[in-house]
Amino acid sequence: MFSSKILVLFLGIIMVLSAVSALEIIEAMPTSTQATMTQGEYMTCYNQFNGTYFPYKVMVTYFPGNYSGGMGFPSKWTVTNDGQEHNAVVPTTSTALMQGVSWELPLNNYVGGVAIPLTTPDTRLPWAQQLGVKGALVMQTQMAGEPLGVTLADNLLFATEDSMMGSISAINPVTGQIVWTATGLAGQAMNNAIVYKGLVIVSVGGVCFTFSQFVHYETHHYNEIMRARNGAIYAFNATDGRLVWMIFTKGEAMPAPAVYHGVLAYTTGGGCFAAVNATTGQMLWKDSFPGYMGNMASVNYYVMPNGTPLFIAGFTYTVAPYGFLLAVNGLNGRLAWNATMPSPYVGANTGLGDVPPAVDQQAGLVIDNDIANFNASSNTVDTVTFALNASTGKPVWATNLGTGIIPPAFKGGMPTIHGNFIYDGSPSLGIVAKLYVNNGSIVWETRLPDLKIPPQLPGGPRGSPTYYHGLLWVAAGSRVYVLSPTTGDVLSMYYVGGRMGIVNPVITGGTMYLSNSYGWVVAIPLSQIFPDWESY
Fold first, then answer.
1. What is the pTM of this model?
2. What 8-state DSSP symbol labels residue 463?
3. Fewer Cβ atoms within 10 Å of its own Cβ: the N or the C terminal residue of the chain?
4. pLDDT (tens digit, 9 = 90+) per residue, 502-523?
């Protein structure tokens, strides 16, 4: 039996959901209250939108008793890793977060996967006996865990999981309790969720190819190649998980989109660079670049001196030069410029489709990272950080960070811009580097201790470093490293466990949030990672 108060709340939720245009609600009923919940559990199942059926049931489970406001976060998260510069520092007014909170959430257990204990030996991972430890670590990140970091905005922490059908969850940042979770998305959710005007937006799609794509490659029909066919973009109400709009895409929509002034731009494995109205999902413009594949190079933007926004994203191509950066006019989608790896470097493998570009709005530069000059006899590549003129795409400078064994899967390091400097990593070399923005000259390079690199293990860091409180915070392998931005000295190494792939630390107050390929989201007090952090 329900109390009258809960019944009124339940009927209110049903009325709101029934108002969503053309959404067929199969089920919307509370189930038994779980031990960690205080006000009930509400489940809603969606199987179509605007007359088009979903491949899987999208199940939204909402726990209103787990929500608490007053975090003081910004209401938006518009680009991967929170902003054009990729420095994920979020202000807060929460006393608890300023002091530092600690919790571990086995998120995969709630969305149909398995959260593997963080202290599990590598040899006990799925696929380890068949693919070896390095292959198993990559598979775990790409097929079952969380490749990218979390999103912190609008009073909540948002995390995606790519286990089986994709999912997105909203988490109370203080308690680590789930506020709502949506499962059954059309593809793997492998990116950083975007938050805008009360919506959390996630694009989905996996890394696989059908056999016909290999036929296109063998017959040199490169422009017909498309990666995956299970792409889609979903917009959920950020507070309660209600589905507001969704669209299917041509090919996977694995890269995260970006939003600027209500225009949400995205790329796909089918060569699309397109934009929709962020609040309604209505298509605004759509470009087609046959054979280009959106990979992990999430969209960023640059605002021209005349106020026109350019959306910028990387694409992979199957033959040389293997990758391109494209910039399109955010108002009409017209191509503004098309760039490749600056000479004399020759891009290799997955190319510029891997690494999300960072944008220095003040300097008018696009900063990216790629591997180049593949040597087949030694299986080595150079890791190159470079800058392009954001208005024209013309090369400004390129700097070789060093030569190492080619890393598996995601090949580059995601750059962070802070002040007049760039902080970047190389999975091939296991280093973090500091470079000048204006000319790319190297200030220092630091090899991260105890981080195993190719050919033995995947290496790192892949995610962008975070600059906070006069310190550089880096997630790589199973550890968080704290470096001096001035000298590059390693000040602290903190063991988290599991593996962190393209993961950037997200910091607010005295708390750090990390996602993990083993299916976990964790909150760690900064004082636990580096006790002296407040003295810097």
1. 0.91
2. S
3. N
4. 999 999 999 999 999 999 999 9
